[in-house]
Amino acid sequence: MKIDLLDSESEWFVKEPSPLAPAKYATIGVLRRTLDYAAFRTEADKYTNSVATPAGRKTHDVIERALILASKQKAVERRQQNKLVRDLYPDNECYLKDYLCLECPVCALNGGIKAVKGAGDVSIKSRILYQTAFSVLPFDQVVESITFNAVDERTTKTDQALGERELVKPDTYFVSTVSILSPTVDELKFYLYSLFNTTRYGAETRGIGVIENKLLGVVLSDTEEFSALGVTMDFYDNLIAEKENPQMNFVSALDVFHDVCVESVSGNGQRIYKKDEVVQIEKDIRSAEITKSWLQGMFKTSKKFKDVIAADAKK
Ligand SMILES: [Zn+2]
């Protein structure tokens, strides 16, 4: 998979994943927009996950925000990555959550634990570091309580109400930042490819939960750059607060990200992709295709990575 804007920085990336990962972080800003109702909640709970946070940096107001927990983002995206691998390698036996192979590119990135003969439990740490994603707008503007009724099939009469559920409304924007520790250039491409191809998040993903992921920024440096909450607060200050008709959209968010948030980038050895470059990277990745031979190269380094870790565990 050739992505010129990333390939031209290949010197910065590691050549293969290693247990002694140098402090290199590819930090990615993502705008996640619901295109349908979505259920972001903890299992067996009908309430949407939420927390009170400062509205913005320029105000003392505190607002309640809807959340997509880091663990929920990770689970969905890892499943999508596994599916991508299985499409080309149908024999690859790697399944969440108890049959992880630790040898495939997905395990090398997301980590896992497995008992290996002679080495005991071998564990790989996740190198994809998620943060909670926050809604830009307050909870009461993005969440709706919907009453569900059961219809009796014989009488077609509506039975008693099944109860109320809270759902996040369509066209709600969440800000997410994801850092990948010491990635190879192919690992970053693979993550971005899977990110753009993951379309359903949240509980009950069969009926609802369609999300569009848009790339806001990519920074390569020696530290994790943006915090998701910090970017959310910047968006609130610049797009929502004191606006007569506050409106969120991708283009204005992209502007604020590059005019305001990028200012806070502090790490060394940085490569901050500019706005038009970020748009180009997304375009290139979306139109790219994962081939078996390309994935084969990733398998080679991920298998070696596991062997090194297993050998360390034996010592
Ligand atoms: Zn695996």
Please describe what this structure looks like.
This protein has 315 residues and is α+β, with helices and mostly antiparallel strands. The chain contains 9 helices and 12 strands. The protein has one domain. Helices cover 33% and strands 25% of the residues. β4 (112-116) and β5 (120-124) form a beta hairpin. α2 packs across α5 (185-197) and α6 (228-240) packs across α7. Zinc ion is lined by residues 94, 100-104, 106-107. Zinc ion binds at residues 94, 100-104, 106-107.
Radius of gyration: 21 Å
Low-confidence stretches: none
> Into which percent range does the helicity of residues fall?
25-40%
Bound molecules: zinc ion
What structural category do the secondary elements indicate? alpha+beta
Element-level helix/strand string: HEEEHHEEEEHEEEHEHHEHH
> How many distinct folded domains?
1
Shape designation: globular
How many helix segments?
Answer: 9
Biggest beta sheet summary: 8 strands, antiparallel
Beta-strand percent range: 25-35%
Count of individual beta strands: 12
Mean pLDDT: 91
Q: Span between N and C termini?
A: 38 Å
